[in-house]
UniProtKB/TrEMBL annotation:
Pfam families: OsmC (PF02566)
SUPFAM superfamilies: OsmC-like
Organism from which the protein derives: Vitreoscilla stercoraria
Matching PANTHER family: OSMC-LIKE PROTEIN (PTHR39624:SF2), PROTEIN INVOLVED IN RIMO-MEDIATED BETA-METHYLTHIOLATION OF RIBOSOMAL PROTEIN S12 YCAO (PTHR39624)
Protein name: OsmC family protein
Domain of life: Bacteria
Length: 144
């Protein structure tokens, strides 16, 4: 499956309109960085992708198993790397809150299932980003 999104910089400083051809949403930078703080920033959008994917994956799995899961909440935070150590890994902390009538074995299984969401797999796997300028110049950068 291919997913496509277009990002278009708007007239307001650092406000970006995003579209997948069917839906539109926005990203902005905080005022402290020159933006208008009118929407989540790019890092918050990344966390929202992981959080929503995790919640949906857990709910789908529980429904498939016939488990009594009434609510799933995923809290996420990104701990930025020390800027003086450019190779230092960043840390995403993901806390699961699952409401339902579950035993310890079911909770343990859902804990493992959270790591099976497609966005989680993408983020922890090897990622390559290919950038192409409209004049045909392209480069390939492998994430390290």
């Amino acid at each position: 499956m291919t997913h496509s999104v277009q990002a278009q910089l708007l007239q307001e400083a650092y406000r970006v309109q995003l579209s997948n051809g069917q839906h539109q949403w926005w990203v902005d930078e905080p005022e402290s960085l020159g933006g208008g703080n009118t929407a989540p920033n790019p890092m918050e959008m990344l966390l929202s992708a992981l959080g929503s994917c995790t919640a949906v994956t857990l709910k789908m799995y529980a429904e498939h198993k016939g488990w009594d899961v009434q609510d799933v909440q995923v809290d996420l935070s990104l701990v930025e790397a020390d800027k003086t150590q450019p190779k230092q890994a960043r840390l995403i902390v993901r806390q699961l809150h699952i409401t339902g009538n579950l035993d310890e074995a079911q909770k343990a299984r859902l804990f493992k299932v959270a790591e099976s969401c497609p966005v989680h797999k993408l983020l922890v796997g090897e990622i390559q980003i290919q950038t192409i300028l409209e004049d045909g110049f392209e480069g390939l950068k492998q994430a390290t």
